[in-house]
């Protein structure tokens, strides 16, 4: 069964609410492609206006983070239920910027993944190696560790609906894209890891994105790889180029 490609923008900490609505309106005619899933993962404060702005279109909205607790005294955090109620469908979990700057570890991310699924959100679970790890030759060991620990206690049935994003840290925001071969090799390795942890049918169902300096020029070749089911796009998701990536 062919996997539907999923092309998501990760806006990171960009766009005020009014800028966000303007961007959605500008992109609206450019991102019409029913053959792929299109998602805007936006800052928390932009969620409500962006959900409103994409109404009636093919675009769905994602969050960039969430907390695993149901509710309570967690100042500054946002729950899965809040996201669902606001009309959010996807949530990025474990982006390397969260792992790095905000010290999110795999035990925490595992709780977030489970809570997101329980609430009915689709996690976009990020993994990826540093340049140092790549040069040491431990890329796949590291990514297997991340995937295995982030998915502890998640069932096959649940895993087949999640999205995994492979984002080599050295390719994020650097303009330095992994070669098509490097990206495909790791995405294939992730699928093999899922097959070992669960079964082949689950591995065949899970969608695996590549992220890291995806742009209008390299998207088509990356997305043509057998194990790359779309992209998680940072910088290029904030401009008209995103339309070219979606309609690659
Ligand atoms: P860039 O596309 O800006 O390299 O960012 C990638 C990324 O981190 C998406 O989550």
Largest sheet: 8 strands, parallel, barrel
Mean pLDDT: 97
Secondary-structure element order, N to C: EHEHEHEHHEHHHEHHEHEH
CATH superfamily: Aldolase class I
Radius of gyration: 17 Å
What's the domain count? 1
CATH topology label: TIM Barrel
Low-confidence stretches: none
CATH class: Alpha Beta
Number of strands: 8
Widest sheet: strand order? Answer: 1-2-3-4-5-6-7-8
Distance between the termini: 21 Å
> What is the count of helical runs?
12
What is the helix fraction of residues, given as a range? 40-55%
Indicate the overall shape.
Answer: globular
Global structural class: alpha/beta
What small molecules are bound in this structure? 1,3-dihydroxyacetonephosphate
List keywords for this structure.
12 helices, TIM Barrel, alpha/beta, 248 residues
């Amino acid at each position: 069964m062919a996997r539907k490609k999923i092309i998501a923008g990760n806006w990171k900490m960009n766009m005020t609410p009014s800028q966000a609505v303007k961007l959605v309106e500008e992109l609206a005619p450019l991102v019409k492609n029913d053959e792929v899933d299109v998602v805007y993962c936006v800052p928390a404060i932009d969620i409500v206006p962006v959900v409103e702005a994409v109404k009636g279109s093919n675009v769905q909205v994602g969050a960039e983070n969430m907390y695993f607790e149901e509710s309570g005294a967690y100042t500054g955090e946002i729950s899965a239920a809040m996201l669902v109620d606001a009309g959010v469908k996807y949530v990025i979990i474990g982006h390397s910027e969260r792992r790095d700057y905000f010290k999110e570890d795999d035990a925490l991310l595992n709780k977030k993944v489970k809570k997101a699924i329980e609430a009915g959100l689709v996690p976009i679970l990020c993994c990826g190696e540093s340049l140092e790890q790549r040069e040491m030759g431990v890329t796949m060991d590291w990514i297997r560790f991340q995937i295995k620990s982030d998915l502890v206690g998640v069932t096959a049935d649940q895993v087949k609906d999640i999205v995994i994003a492979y984002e080599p840290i050295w390719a994020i925001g650097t303009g330095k894209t992994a070669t098509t071969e490097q990206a495909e090799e790791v995405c294939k390795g992730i699928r093999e890891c899922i097959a070992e942890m669960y079964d082949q049918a689950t591995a065949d169902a899970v969608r695996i994105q590549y992220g890291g300096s995806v742009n209008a020029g390299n998207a088509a070749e990356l997305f043509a790889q057998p194990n790359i089911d779309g992209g998680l796009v940072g910088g290029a998701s904030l401009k008209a180029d995103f339309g070219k990536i979606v309609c690659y």
